[in-house]
Design goal:
The protein has 334 residues and is an alpha/beta fold. It folds into two domains: 170 residues, Glutaredoxin, CATH 3.40.30; 143 residues, Glutathione S-transferase Yfyf (Class Pi), Chain A, domain 2 (Up-down Bundle), CATH 1.20.1050. Helix content is 40%, strand content 16%. The chain has a ten-stranded mixed beta sheet with strand order 5-2-1-3-4-9-8-7-6-10, sandwiched between helices. The protein is globular. Bound molecules: glutathione.
């Protein structure tokens, strides 16, 4: 096996989305390398790899580059099937998927991001504010954040209540009643963990331990299980940007190219020039390249690294992504 399983994770430690992946790796005890990124643009290492997608985390396996945690976690489950922590029973698979959809697309993260405290020091940094406005397409001005907070908290209280009064109500340890946390716990816990550990985010009178004892106990249990898993997991290898780029551009592709689904409603053809980009956030940054594969779950583009000039395959999920044909060197064909 290649060193660190051929994996490089591009992230920064306080990203709640990146935690979905670092937690998964620790719980599975998987070896990997990381390349720590600045929390705001520009990200020169990713530019050098030819990746335009702006969100974090991104994970490479050899010369295949996976964007979006939904795709990343699915890929890791598939690549390391022995000891996988995803559900196998159809009901449980559905619950796991619905938890992913609820937290990512169904508004829990979106509302959590609106609940960040207006006193957060970073909000006094105009460069940071501008960067986050580019990412989310809404104002990150302190006054606007303060104005949006009550509504966000009202929505979040409903989300907390749902977990407390349904899935966690019977006192189970983990969401799928497993012995150890499973992927369903990761899919559910991350925005709650983020909020409950962010000073000043949640008013204690509405979101205290006495209001949601089961959620807090679940988070505490998860944190101690994770701590123990980290202590026995292989040490994470840290690569500097140039080392990571050299490693990736000299690696092989780890996935066969794949096919373009002839039944796909978009009617795109293999080899065609396309753009692909997320439409829920980070929408101003589009990857562009030749279409390598298109399935129900993902699109794969061939782009060129700026350093090393090797082709890389960039993988995006389909949900909340848009793919358009483009003319060579030109604009989107509408
Ligand atoms: N759906 C994406 C969302 C990723 C996302 O929004 N990540 C945040 C970090 S927590 C981000 O990229 N923020 C802007 C940035 O760091 O550039 C995923 O599941 O990976």
């Amino acid at each position: 096996m290649a060193p660190h399983n051929d994996i490089v994770l591009f992230h920064y430690s306080f990203s709640p989305y990146a935690k979905r992946v670092t937690w998964y790796m620790a719980l599975r005890g998987l070896e990997y390398a990381q390349c720590v990124q600045p929390p705001a643009l520009p990200r020169e290492d990713l530019n050098a790899l030819g990746v335009k997608y702006r969100r974090i985390p991104i994970l490479s396996i050899g010369r295949d580059i996976y964007c979006d945690t939904r795709l990343i976690l699915r890929k890791l489950e598939e690549k390391f099937p022995s000891g996988a922590i995803g559900a196998s029973d159809p009901d449980q698979k559905a619950l796991q998927k619905l938890l992913e959809t609820w937290t990512i697309d169904g508004g829990v993260f979106h509302r959590a991001a609106q609940a960040i405290p207006p006193e957060m020091p970073l909000l006094n940094d105009p460069k940071w504010v501008k960067d986050r406005e580019d990412y989310m397409g809404r104002s990150w001005g302190k006054e606007d954040i303060a104005r949006g907070r009550p509504e966000a908290l009202a929505h979040l209280r409903e989300a907390f209540e749902l977990l407390e009064s349904t899935l966690l109500a019977d006192g189970r340890q983990w969401i799928l009643k497993t012995k150890q946390p499973s992927l369903a716990d990761i899919e559910a816990i991350w925005p709650f963990h983020w909020l409950c550990t962010m000073e000043g985010a949640l008013p204690p009178s509405l979101f205290g331990k006495e209001n949601f004892p089961k959620i807090y106990a679940w988070i505490d249990r998860f944190s101690s299980t994770l701590k123990a898993a980290r202590n026995s997991a292989p040490k994470v290898v840290t690569l500097k940007g140039p080392e990571a780029i050299q490693y990736i551009t000299q690696a092989e592709f780890t996935e066969p190219s794949g096919e373009v689904d002839a039944q796909d409603p978009l009617g795109l053809k293999k080899g065609q020039d396309v753009e692909s980009w997320p439409i829920d956030s980070g929408f101003n940054h589009r990857d562009r390249g030749q279409l390598v594969a298109l399935t129900r779950q993902k699109v794969v583009l061939k782009a060129q690294a700026k350093i090393g000039h090797k082709d890389v395959h960039i993988h995006h999920p389909r949900t909340n992504f848009r793919i358009r044909a483009v003319s060579k060197g030109g604009n989107s064909k509408l």
